[in-house]
What does this fold into?
Amino acid sequence: MTGLRATMRKSTFTFWEVPVEQLPIAWKDATLRLEEQARTDAATIGDAEPGRT
It folds into this structure.
């Protein structure tokens, strides 16, 4: 289990609130939301491209 620490160190957990009628969220919608969040996070820290370190 301790071997996973280095791998999990950069993990990010993202949560959305959606009406129950929209559950389950389609995988395509989830990936679009994740990409949007990555762009927002990158802009917040001044990174030009999401995922760059």
About this structure: The two ends are 25 Å apart (CA to CA).
